[in-house]
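Support reply, case 0932

Customer input (verbatim):
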Amino acid sequence: MDSQKRTAVVRAPGRNPGDTPRSGVIHVNVRHTRRFTVVGNHLAQHPEMSLVAIGLAVHIQSLPTGALIGIRDLVPRFPESEYRIAAALRELELHGYLERTRVRLAGGQVVTRTVSYNRPGCPAEAAEPETAPPAPPVTPPTSNPSTPTPAPPSPVSRTPEAREPRQSQEAQEAPEAPQRSAPPRPVNPDNPWRRDAATAVLTDLRHADARLLLGRQDIERLTPAVEAWLERGARPAGILAVLTANLPPQLRNPAGLIAHRLTAQLPPALPDEGPRAPAHVPPDPFQTCEDDACGLAFRSPAPGLCGECRAGTAAA
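Our regenerated output:
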């Protein structure tokens, strides 16, 4: 008879024998000491982003400063198509992990500046200054008191001077990370007409694109931001055009996209120039000359004689 081979079950090491779960994932963690990247769970477990966008964000955060992360640079690196990589980059921009802006250099060349945020919504932390190691203790001489004791080497003259040029160069090359601001709010919020107009703008988004169907809570949250636009002289039709222009093909978070555009594209406040003339003055209505022999049609705010008949009457 053939002997049966027994396969031993390999269990992951744990602190206690009873720590091994009956089902689910078992982590075998090894502490990294070099070549590693710290990633927050807000990114690794993001509830709205796709798996491609999460993986691309981790890859971008692991790259050194100055690495190229354009679509043409990423396509040869990964098996995903150019369309999926472009969609993932737009997801990272939508959720604040990536910011791409066009910057004109001193020579007139226009380049794209890309800033990666490992924790969106938080200001960039300043680098902690390096502290010099403590000076070794000085032992008093015992054999020959007349021999001068050499002064201990100053720790400040070693490490900080060697690192100072590199730190200053990185500070000059690193772009200044702008802080993300909250959606705008109107200066004078007590305006029922403006509030109703802002609510109508957010409600009418569904007519421009069915994917922009916002819930009641999202409309209430974004209404003050639309009021700020109306307060600065924007028309409802213009706001709708800005919010619905060039929508991404994969729209996963409509409320987040609308909030981002209301914040990033807020128009400037108009200068206080006193009362402004209306943009359009309607013409006077047509009137028929009351002279039976004339009967000419002319524009006037009130009925009466036309200009020629009035001139003839004044001459007579």
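We compared this against your earlier run and they match. Two observations from our side: Residues 192-264 form one domain. The beta strands are 98-104, 110-116, 286-288, 297-299. Please reopen the case if you see a mismatch on your end.
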